[in-house]
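User: ok so my PI wants both of these folded by tonight, can you help

Assistant: No problem, let's get them done. Here's the first:
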Amino acid sequence: PDTPWCGTDMSSPQTMKIIEQVRQDREAGRYPIARKGRLDPEIGDRQTFNVSETGVASYEFELIDKTSLYHLWVEVGELANGNVDQGKANQLRSSVLESTPTRSINPSKGTFANNHDIFGLPPNVDGDGIVDILMYDIGQGSGSTLGYFWPADQLVDSSSGNGRDILYLDSNEGTRNFSTLAVIAAHEYAHLIHFAYGSDQTFISEGLAEYAMVMNGFYWRGVSFASSVTEVSLPLFTWRSDQGSVGARGYE
């Protein structure tokens, strides 16, 4: 089946500027930054986070699950309307922490542990060893983007990023099929890990994230570009960010 679009921007001029600043901060020994204002948040705590799509917006989130690897925060409106509840939080916990499909490299491990074994550890920019998963309605009720990683979160001094290791997942379309959301979580988490070790061309970063889906035992994207003379004539690392069939050829 077709895989929903990855919302992670790794190629725009704005992101390339952020990537360079993060590199300079790392080389200057500025990581990890000061720990979070509250060392150990409790279930039910609320906090405002910034999110990024076409621009930066702020939403209030509530902590609904805590594990040894991640804290799950859900936008309060998505709790109120029932898009996310404890049952769905448990489904996410199962795929992320406990097990993956039988075709996985290790079905007895969740996607986070399998990604760690293959790709490495996440950046840990805030020094607490925890990934914050933020669930909100990406696209506000429309669109095919079900998750993303925001490089600006890795900046030491930023007026927009959150200064944390964050994975963004969709709480509306995404929660309608948790098998799909588990795939997206594996893909986007690979981006977060990859960023800990520097950065590569978008083609490579997306390729690793696509492999994360396959090696965790999920489906892979259908391949049709080989039937196009124009497509097979392009340089291998060609990447187009268009959403839709043209942009999807890069993933294929």
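One down. Here's the second:
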Amino acid sequence: MSYFVSDLCIYPIKSIKGISLTTSQVNLDGLLGDRRYMITKPNGDFLTGREHPTLTLLTALPLGEDRWQLTHPNAESPLDLDPSTFKEDYQEVIIWENPVAGQSCSEQANQWFSKILNDEVALVYFGDQSSRVTSRRPDKPVAFADGYPFLLTTKASLDELNKSCPEDIQMAQFRPNIVVDGDLPFAEDGWKRIKIGDVIFENVKPCERCIFTTINPDTGERSRKGEPMKTLGKFRLVKKEGVLFGINLIAENSGTIQQGDRVEILEYQDAPVLDDRRIKSSKQ
């Protein structure tokens, strides 16, 4: 069985529309430019598309390293972000109860996002004084991603989901960094260590999915049927862990990966035991 990288994607600001790349620099804390910005409440709690689905309609145009021009259907004009203009002003922000020092961006950025979201919010940057590590590998850094610096999914797994899901689900709903093409659905469950290009990745844990996956990336609207969570719950549910789709990775080294790179499986592990409660699909 052969596997190769079919897509690479980054999300410069947590929860916004992804940017597809042909090649990317792999740093230990994630793909270059991935989730370096985050929106917070006034008290520092982080905000995502779970609370504000319209964030998925926000587009970032690259202007340079961590520099972006932002547009949104509800914005009167674009917003430019440039870390070199940010003051050395850090505040404590909270991601899943974990405090992180986030660099304040600008009052202009705060007002721009507050108007789009119709809510008082602030934008912070993962600056030089920001530091965060993963829970299961406290020696490995991560920026503003939910828990781990890389998320991998496979096209075969998405195809298998769509065989029985009443709605056509897009890969963008799962917000991966690395998409792999191959013939066997959910083969990634059993991968322990893989190599892409010159970079070795370790599968730290399966990714537990949430309501964010029910947001249509083209419209910013939630699925009225609760898909794909409803269908995934029939064959990808693990007690005490939740509904699984994709795997969380850490990198053992830095390097460059690109679309078309072969994915070499270096080490396997036991996959989670799942109970398939699906009935014969009507989408045959």
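The longest strand covers residues 199-208. The longest helix spans residues 107-117. Good luck tonight!
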